[in-house]
Design a protein that fits this description.
The chain has 84 residues and is an all-alpha fold. The protein has one domain. Helix content is 77%, strand content 0%. The protein is built from four helices and no strands.
Length: 84
């Protein structure tokens, strides 16, 4: 993937990323996150562990990414959450 994502690519990326993040949060905390909790989880904890989880997930999109690309996807998602 190139570092400059097209708008349609970024929407698809976010659609694949969100359920993975929610699942990670649920497995660690035993409950579904609120929007605020998901934001806090991403900002305070996300980077390295979530990057590894994304690259090792069932998502073919994330499996093909480097660590830097997966981190860029997380940052894109964080920006989306800030708009909400």
């Amino acid at each position: 993937m190139s570092s400059a994502l097209a708008v349609s690519d970024s929407k698809h990326l976010i659609q694949e990323l969100e359920p993975i993040l929610v699942s990670l949060y649920q497995s660690e905390n035993g409950k579904s996150p609120t929007l605020y909790e998901l934001k806090q989880y991403l900002v305070s904890y996300a980077s390295e562990k979530i990057v590894d989880s994304l690259i090792n997930s069932d998502s073919t999109m994330f499996k093909s990414m480097s660590s830097n690309e997966a981190l860029a996807a997380i940052n894109l998602y964080i920006r989306k959450l800030r708009v909400w």
